[in-house]
Amino acid sequence: MVAEVAALAVARPLNLVRNEVINMITKRQGLVVWVKHHKYVKRLRRYGHLIYASRKQKYILLYVNQDDIEDIMEQIRRLNFVRKVDFSYKPFIDTAYQKKGEVEEKEYEVRSIY
């Protein structure tokens, strides 16, 4: 990947290269897999990037490519040691936050109109 970025930098201005590098990063999404026993963690490693495995609560957190998530969820659900599979809603949450003052100003504008 470093060679690809270097080749892009030679041919184009830096701001265009940065946009192309951001587009090359794969979109990932978390999967929470509830299992019957912790010994099956090794089997689930092949489906994605293992982030965390809880022994006490018997769940595993995997990161998977967003494009393949439906297929991988279906494959994991078919395994006999899996109780439940949930996916993370983090990619769908809007993270553009506002300051408290901006919200109050908007409310004041609405009140002053009526």
From TrEMBL:
Chief localisation class: cytoplasm
Source domain of life: Bacteria
Record keywords: Cytoplasm
A single cellular component GO annotation: cytoplasm
Subcellular location: Cytoplasm
Any matching Pfam family: DUF2129
Matches recorded under InterPro entries: DUF2129
HAMAP family documented for this protein: UPF0298
Family: Belongs to the UPF0298 family.
Protein name per Swiss-Prot or TrEMBL: UPF0298 protein SAMN05216362_1017
Organism: Piscibacillus halophilus
